[in-house]
Amino acid sequence: MNKKTRMGTVMPKAVLVRSTGGPEVLELTDVEPKEPGPGQLLVAVAAAGVNYIDTYHRSGLYPLELPLALGLEGAGTVTAVGPDVTGFAVGDRVAWHESPGSYAEQVLVAAEQAVPVPEGVDDETAAATMLQGLTAHYLVTSTYPIHAGDTVLVHAAAGGVGQLLVQLAKSRGARVIATVSTAAKEELARAAGADEVIRYSEVDFAPEVRRLTDGVGVNAVYDGVGKDTFDGGLASLKPRGFMVLYGGASGPVPPVDPQRLNAAGSVYLTRPRLGAYVATREELEWRAGELFAAVADGSLKVAVGARYPLAEARKAHEDLEARRTTAKLLLIP
């Protein structure tokens, strides 16, 4: 329950990082109430997404100024509108993917980063769709645009981005080979639509990919795992295939000699980031609009793997980094 100051002002809560480190540094504390400035919305957070990049901010792998209000993504209801803001009003439901301090009861969101949440999409699903959904969307439509008849390899296919990647790749006519670590995760990947599933904890996935493609290889590898899967991914590509390295859950990939791309069959390597693919308001609205439309009509399933109260942000990070989770993790204020 919120505490009050002596003046009777409600003090909202937020998760802060005062010194970088492990999940134990996450602290739920009272913060000063916020007021929206020019171009900003004040939003009551209904759900905040937990993402791997949050662990990089918390640990200092991606250094940020301290103290740090953690979290980037969420959904909720507009409670105040800043000067010069048009297109939004108090009471609107919105979602966002890049508003620092989203592990909180209230957050300031730049209006240009907010997208309306349509009827037929609840707040939790909207929060779970944004960062991972936008990522999956740009990967299959723009980084390597999948064409009907392509064969692609999706690593960590039971994860939040992985399940969305499988579904979106299938919707574009691809054959999807997925990798997972356990039988339970295999079931999730198959439920998302994967045609073939390889348990990389039991077999070397690169030779298996070759076997499944009659020695040809895949058009593209979507790799959010990084260090542990990169070499096998290169070995799984067909000539002139695309290695799309969009994350590093197992650690960063060591420097790569470009001659390796030559030896692998004149393949391409790219390390994309979301910001470059929602560089304009129009692009953000296009991607979010397509995702929310697919969620609303039932053609895209956004799975929530676990929900935690704000006070259990530490446990959410522990579970995420230990790979005890599947699909999306949410914090619920």
UniProtKB/TrEMBL annotation:
CDD domains: QOR2. It comes from the Bacteria. InterPro entries: ADH-like_C (IPR013149), ADH-like_N (IPR013154), ER (IPR020843), GroES-like_sf (IPR011032), NAD(P)-bd_dom_sf (IPR036291), QOR-like (IPR047618), Quin_OxRdtase/zeta-crystal_CS (IPR002364). Signal peptide: none annotated. The keyword Oxidoreductase applies. Residues 21-331 form the Enoyl reductase (ER) domain. Keywords: NADP, Oxidoreductase. The keyword Transferase does not apply. One of its GO terms (molecular function) is mRNA 3'-UTR AU-rich region binding. GO terms for cellular component: cytosol. Pfam families: ADH_N (PF08240), ADH_zinc_N (PF00107). PANTHER family: QUINONE OXIDOREDUCTASE PIG3-RELATED, QUINONE OXIDOREDUCTASE-RELATED. This is NADPH2:quinone reductase.
